[in-house]
Structure prediction request, 250 residues.
Amino acid sequence: MRSPTRNPSCRYQPGETAPSSRSESGGQVEREGYLLGLRTWQESCPCCFSSIHPEGVPTGPPMPLEDDDVAYVRREFVPLGAVCAREGIPLAKVRDMVHTGQSPKPPYVLPDGTEMVPVDYFELIHDAGNVERLREHFVERFESAARRHGDPATRRDTRQAWVEYLSGEYFVCLKRATPENIEQKGWLVPRIEHLMREPRANDPDWRNELNSMVEELDALERPFAAYDRIRFGSANSRERLITTARRSYL
Prediction:
């Protein structure tokens, strides 16, 4: 591999290409393959070093995942390269689609640099007809789902949902990241939070309403990886709104 020279006009700052090392009570975690994966990412900046990778620039840096995290991700997700091969789409093309904001980022990158995605990663693109129509198709379905709830989405709501979809974070939390499920989670979360802020544990109607919403959210959400607490900087929605609600009130 050649020794790269950084482009002084590079739009990627060093902090964006090197995630913080994960630390636990036992000390700093340095997983086998993680440093190699990180170095590969740092030497393949989309702005400077695109010629290094004939299969396109990786979509993100490796994540310092623990063994349990890696096992979970491998159970729940599949390598992006394998999904591209199945679909007959070049990996380089999909990586470029991610970098240009046309397609969502993989939700996890293993310590060795393997990008992991849900098995239905391309489903919404197929539904849209092509990637060029993906945003329009997403918006139509998201707004339609909001109208069915009697709570029409604002332009800001729709823009935020699209940006968060592109970030890949809905693949982290939802079993199927469809516009309808994204909107449904957005509808459920504040209502569960409101019920839990004003608990009436002795009121059967309150408990039934909370239980119904918790069950609905539970059906939508994945189990999550322990690493996701670091990713989001707090307990995930399953911990906050499903596990805690059941333990405390149901």
